[in-house]
Automatic annotation (TrEMBL):
InterPro entries: MFS_dom, MFS_sugar_transport-like, MFS_Sugar_Transporters, MFS_trans_sf, Sugar/inositol_transpt. Gene3D superfamilies: MFS general substrate transporter like domains. This is Major facilitator superfamily (MFS) profile domain-containing protein. Residues 501-510 have a biased composition (Low complexity). It comes from Penicillium arizonense.
């Protein structure tokens, strides 16, 4: 069956995946607009006005850049309540409204520094909420065989908006006069595609798994049939929904009657859930501290360290960096992730990141004169792109997908939201400290630190991370039976066979004697 090519289903995937645009455009479009002369003049960021206080200027720029990330960390937690109480689709729309309102305020803050910081945090709340709700919804409506492609489209649109943002800044700096209109136009561009997606969201159905968890079984069946482009009585639809619905009916209470704190405690008391929860937290930690988004925010400066000269050349190279991430994320999402699997991609990506960091660290440590060592300089520039490839096929996307597919619906929202809050808090920390690391560790020390994290990540995830390719969400618990250090031996094919032969729900009993379905759709 080619469910993923159903026109309506494809439209729904694109609409909800557009929730990645706010985050991506902030990293490419907004972060670039901070360097525009019109923005610098409006918000007192001209270096000559800060003579003798370079640290003060750096902190002011860092606050403007990173406060959106801080707001996003809070938004990932706030959306916890909305996802379960109002539904994935309503929560998605509310997050869009919050982000758009914050964006409009920051566009017209007109040099008022305090108002700008408030709007950055407020808009970040919406952007953070979208990073939770969009992948969550996509993973819940996608067929098992193409779940990676569905969630991967979220990252594709995120990175596409990031890459486009660099070039929009280049165009504005080259062809527009230095007025407020220059930076306002750059910052407003993302409102257009997100606004269109917001309008189209009203033809999208709610997640069938969420509807089933709210005891709205007929509505869930109808939503699934619409997504698959079939009738509600089609055998394949009935079979797929029965796998979801049968598990839900075994639960005595629905999501609204259980507090988030109680669900969190359940994830820690149940050994099977606990393994999954802490694996995802570890994955998010490794992802950010290997350089992660910090390099994206400082990529223009990194190219200058590597020997490129001229702001225009660095900005164009930054755009090429964004395109590289986009191209390989597309290859990852539409091929590698569902072909060779999540585990192999993560380890291959970390290996490429490690190699790139080692060379760049050596280059930055030796500091050869680029005029006399052009080959070394070119290799340093190339290593930035090697890093981009590794990041794109590995931990750039996998935590989004992994976090939405390894948990049953009962604990998925809480566990994934916490992981995304951790993601945003770490991204905030990385963005804030990367500039200081370049200064205090003389650049090469930062790369040594990132290389060490990559090395540890290869070992830790190589042991702890099982393959989830092709495993139905309802059977993920089978992969996490037994000691955590044996996860590398997990056999996903056995879970697929077990799922196809039976829809019966097995039970995982925690040491607190709390019987829970190993992986119910609830």
């Amino acid at each position: 069956m080619r469910w993923d090519f159903n026109p309506f289903y494809t439209l729904v995937i694109v609409v909800i995946a557009s929730g990645g645009i706010p985050k991506g455009y902030d990293e490419g479009g907004y972060s670039g607009s901070v360097t525009l002369p019109s923005f610098r003049a409006d918000f007192n960021l001209v270096p000559s006005d800060w003579a003798g206080d370079a640290a003060g200027l750096a902190n002011r720029i860092a606050n403007i850049t990173s406060f959106n990330v801080l707001g996003a960390a809070l938004g990932a937690l706030v959306v916890l309540y909305l996802n379960d109480r109002l539904g994935r689709l309503v929560a998605w729309r509310l997050a869009c409204i919050v982000w758009a309102s914050g964006t409009l305020v920051q566009i017209f803050s007109s040099g008022i520094y305090g108002l700008l910081l408030f709007s950055r945090i407020w808009g970040g709340l919406g952007a953070g909420g979208l990073t939770v709700t969009s992948p969550l919804y996509l993973s819940e409506i996608a067929p098992t065989k193409t779940r990676g492609r569905a969630v991967g489209l979220y990252m594709i649109l995120l990175l596409a908006s990031l890459a486009i943002g660099f070039f929009i800044n280049y165009g504005a700096s080259t062809h527009m006069s230095v007025t407020r209109t220059q930076y306002r136009l750059v910052q407003a561009i993302a409102l257009i595609p997100v606004g269109v997606a917001f309008g189209l969201s009203y033809i999208c159905p709610e997640s069938p798994r969420y509807l089933a968890s709210k005891q709205l079984h007929q509505a869930g069946l109808e939503a699934l049939a619409r997504l698959r482009g079939k009738d509600t009585y089609d055998p394949s639809i009935v079979e797929e929904f029965e796998t979801i619905d049968a598990q839900v009916r075994e639960q005595a209470s629905d999501l609204a009657s259980v507090s988030h704190w109680a669900i969190f405690k359940e994830t820690q008391r149940n050994p099977n859930y606990r393994q999954r929860f802490w694996l995802l937290m570890t994955m998010q930690t490794i992802a950010q501290w290997t350089g992660g988004n910090g390099i994206t925010y400082y990529v223009t400066s990194i190219f200058k360290y590597a020997g490129l000269t001229g702001s225009a050349q660095s900005l164009i190279s930054s755009g090429a960096y964004g395109i590289t991430k986009l191209v390989f994320t597309v290859a990852f999402s539409w091929g590698l992730i569902d072909l060779i699997g999540r585990r192999r991609c993560a380890l291959a990506g970390l290996s490429l990141q490690l190699a790139a960091h080692v060379y760049t660290g050596i280059y930055m440590g030796l500091r050869p004169e680029s005029a006399r060592n052009q080959n070394a300089s070119n290799a340093a520039v190339a290593s930035v792109f090697v890093y981009a490839v590794g990041w794109s096929i590995g931990l750039c996307t996998i935590p989004y997908l992994y976090g939405t597919e390894i948990f049953p619906t009962r604990i998925r929202n809480v566990s994934y939201a916490i992981s995304m809050a951790l993601h945003w808090f770490f991204q905030f920390a990385v963005v804030r400290v990367t500039g200081d690391m370049f200064v205090s560790l003389d650049v090469w020390g930062a790369y040594l630190f990132w290389a060490l994290i990559c090395f540890l990540g290869i070992i830790i995830l190589g042991i702890w991370m099982p393959e989830t390719k092709g495993v139905p969400i309802e059977r993920m618990g089978d992969l996490f039976e037994g000691p955590w250090y044996l996860r590398w031996r997990a056999r996903p094919r056995e879970c697929v066979v077990a799922s196809s032969s039976s829809t019966a729900t097995e039970t995982v009993a925690s040491k607190d004697n709390i019987p829970k379905s190993r992986d119910s759709a609830f």
